[in-house]
Write a structure and sequence with these properties.
single chain; D-Maltodextrin-Binding Protein, domain 2; five-stranded mixed β-sheet; 253 residues; alpha/beta
Length: 253
């Protein structure tokens, strides 16, 4: 008889099974995000001390667009306009954060205010044309533009608060009365007694129906500038400088 084949014997020890995890049908859950602990007893940040930005302005200066930009960029800091005269603009630099002045600054007046030209930062902004203000009935208004030679024989008044650098009008006559402030000089010119030469902005500020003006083509221009003491440069001053220079809130200096 044929011998029967022996069946393999079953193992007598424990059967080992694979410990590999079955394939997951979905991605594993994300670990929970770490959240910052809330410190309920943390001290509140100290609020900024109330302050304002004081800007001096000479007559005729036009800071309107810069003021609007300041209000949008610095709503928490009110801007206070401080009227100053050209004669006292050097002294006023000690009383304001910055000022719109007319150049040049007088060295003697700066010294009297305890300042020097090197101690004051000046940024020229724009130039104003000079104009001749005269009576509405004056023959000078027949021209669209005047020159110094057109003023020969005219009584030329120089305001006591003159905003222009000193200059000479060849052949002009001096008035027989003391210098008057700009507003009164223009009122006098409107009567036909003489003429007055001022920056265009002042002619517009003191506009009258009985007076008009013409550009003086070869007369001295008036430069309006932003000025402040260098040692008093603050973040607010830097912000205003950026505004007048056209920088945006995100611009780098």
């Amino acid at each position: 008889m044929a011998k029967q084949q022996r069946r393999p014997s079953r193992p007598t020890g424990p059967v080992r099974r694979s410990k590999a995890a079955p394939a997951q049908r979905f991605p594993p859950p994300k670990p929970p995000k770490k959240t910052a602990k809330v410190a309920f007893d943390a001290p509140a940040p100290e609020p900024e001390e109330p302050r304002s930005f004081r800007l001096g302005t000479v007559p005729g200066a036009t800071p309107g667009k810069w003021i609007d930009a300041w209000k949008q960029r610095m709503p928490q800091v009110p801007l206070e306009l401080v009227p100053i005269t050209v004669a006292a603009q050097q002294t006023a630099l000690s009383d304001v954060d910055a000022a719109l002045v007319r150049l040049p600054l007088d060295d003697e007046a700066l010294a009297a205010a305890g300042l020097s030209r090197d101690a004051v930062h000046v940024i020229p902004l724009y130039d104003e044309l000079p104009v001749v203000v005269t009576s509405i009935e004056s023959h000078l208004l027949a021209a669209d533009e005047l020159t110094l030679s057109d003023l020969a024989g005219e009584v030329v008044m120089t305001p006591s608060d003159d905003a222009l650098v000193p200059f000479t009008v060849p052949g002009a006559l001096a008035p027989a009365f003391a210098p008057l402030p700009t507003a009164e000089s223009i009122a006098t010119a409107a009567t036909g007694i003489g003429i007055v030469i001022v920056p265009m902005s002042l002619a517009r500020v003191h506009h009258r129906k009985d007076a008009d003006h013409r550009v003086l083509a070869d007369g001295p221009t008036s430069t309006v500038a932003l000025a402040w003491p260098r040692e008093r440069t603050t973040p607010d001053v830097d912000t205003f400088v950026g505004i007048v220079r056209g920088r945006t809130a995100n611009s780098s200096r």
